[in-house]
Amino acid sequence: MQLSLPHPSLQALQAGRWFKLICGASFQDLPAIRHLATAYSLAGADCIDVAAEPAVVAAARSGIAAAKPLLAAAAQQGYKPTQPWLMVSVNDGEDPHFRKAVFDPTICPADCPRPCVTICPADAIAFIKEKQGVIVDRCYGCGRCLPICPIQIIGEQKHLSTPVAVGELLKTGEVQAIEIHTQPERGEEFLKLWQELSGSLDQLKLISISAPRGLEGGLDHLRSISKLIASLTPTPLIIWQTDGRPMSGDIGMGTTHATIALGRQVAAAKLPGYVQLAGGTNHYTVDKLRQLKLLKSAGQEVFVSGIAYGSYARVMLAPLFEQIPGNDKLAEHPDILWAAVDRAASLVQQIKS
Ligand code: SF4
Ligand code: SF4
Hints:
12 strands, binds iron/sulfur cluster, globular
């Protein structure tokens, strides 16, 4: 009898070498999502996490599919390409990942130096002939523009996941994983969302639970969730995503400290499943984990099994994608494609090596 190996993404989790790309729970820039999915598939990502919307999922699937005929070429060049799992993100209550900036550009003073444009890491605010104000698809809710406006006209529009639509999306079988953003005090809200999704969770390979800082006293919430997940048949894998300093990895090296501290705390709690960092992760994260002996190795008791990168991973490739005209696919521009794969691989291979 021939034994089949586990999927490479599962092997990566088991080995403590898991890499997830976060496109963003509110990010809807379809060409960028397609390009990111292609580049990070060829660079060896294990999972790509996107907004729970059919158009966004279709764009990510199209990007992953575009990488397929290039897998051999990538391997020949020394990369370790994959066909990653696709994950969609939902929330059980208010969460900064699920919001958009909003303002009326017609009331901006003509002499405002436009600090909102400068600070936005996603080029999501424009004052050009074609577009004035927030470019909604690009905004992923980082919130950096909110306090910077001198006349305080930038607000936020929050949104809550719609379980019926998400359930329909899960039933298509096009995604392998879901991530639920929750908080320690939201037991009832989590249960309500769980019950609403329950008929559509049984095909999933993986459920990720994303929780922010302030978990002190909140580990009981995670333990209750692990019991709910264990009651599913077949039982999916569990990832505990420690969201230290949300959407901040591109700001500076030090943003990674909060998620490492939280990751250590959750890993020490020995919940069933895997612990994965997010929120403030960047090129410094793996070095820091190594220094602190928090990467998995023989005999290691407390460790994290993977890292998710969001704003940092996207910002690294954004200048390359700006060179792609119109609706062209990344693969139509080989120079840009392989430059993007090279940059992406410089991040992915940190945890892999
Ligand atoms: S700074 Fe952040 S919240 Fe503001 S528009 Fe840009 S992406 Fe959206
Ligand atoms: S900082 Fe405020 S006033 Fe100035 S351009 Fe931006 S939104 Fe308008």
